[in-house]
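subagent[fold] <- orchestrator: predict structure for attached chain, return tokens only, no commentary.
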Amino acid sequence: MRIAQLAPLAETIPPPHYGGTERIVYHLTEELVRQGHDVTLFASGDSTTSAVLKSVYPRSLRTDPSVALPEAYQFQAMEQLFSMASAFDIIHSHVDFFAFPFAKRCAQPVLTTQHGRQDLRELPGLYAYYEELPLVSISDAQRAPLPNLNWVDTIHHGLPPELYQCNPDGGDYLAFLGRLSPEKYADHAIEVAKHTGIPLKIAAKVDAADEVYFKQQIEPLLDHPLVEFIGEISDAEKQNFLGNARALVAPFDWPEPFGLVFIEALACGTPVCAYRRGSVPEIIEHGKTGFICDTLTDMITAVGRVDEIEREQCRAAFDDHFTAARMARDYVDLYERLTRQPVHAVAPLELKEAAGG
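subagent[fold] -> orchestrator:
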């Protein structure tokens, strides 16, 4: 198939550090090329890809302080893509609702994967204008706030199996990986360490918007013998960080649309202890690949039980459900279904029932 992938321009593809959407775009694009498809990636000019790269700006917008209006370049990228839409069998957008006006008026099928949360109050009014557009959710839970949109499938994220190796032995510390923002509840992870006596290593990014929160609420808690703050780490560093951990603690208190860190941990053989939020019950099998917790007390108890989890079983769950090859096959099946039907007329699929499905 001739496939266009439209990526955000804020980060390079793949991102050097944090950037979940961009990482998925990269792995999906690479796998589609590997499977023999003709793929064109619309992304920042400093991106690395096996596909044909089209760009309107030479570097990722976030890294260029001279860019005062990044949206201008994103819209240029969309104009570039949609002006040549007939060159593709399918256009796959990863830029949220920004491409909706183009998609609505495009003669070629346009699929949008929603990568963010869908429970924001501004979205229903906006989406009412685009109810016919086919959307993919990255978990069944993600679509719950807006169930009447044209959700045509749920496709869980996947990663290349060679990216991480299973460590069957693990280590003696707990790992926290993500952003240090209020909804990530790093303070709960610290409380878990204090109550269990197990050291905690925090590898996390602090966004500019969260600096005050970090300084006032989290930084004072880091001065504890059980807590080590590492800062942001690269993909290459995640193998040791996650693989050598006894468990990943993820006390995230927000409707997590997917959570790449969960399947990264599973790929390393590391059990996950997470709050029952968003996608967590679809990814973690309670008692088999980790523990799903409702309270801080539950998580403290769960961490005391992680040695009951077979680490090889965590890796097996990753191999069965969360590889890039499986993700790409699911998308190709959907691409083909879309191209066989009139634009915007593809019928929604039923929600997946099995956890990790």
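orchestrator: received. Logging for downstream: Residues 8 and 244 are 33 Å apart (CA to CA). The domain at 163-320 is CATH 3.40.50.2000 (Rossmann fold).
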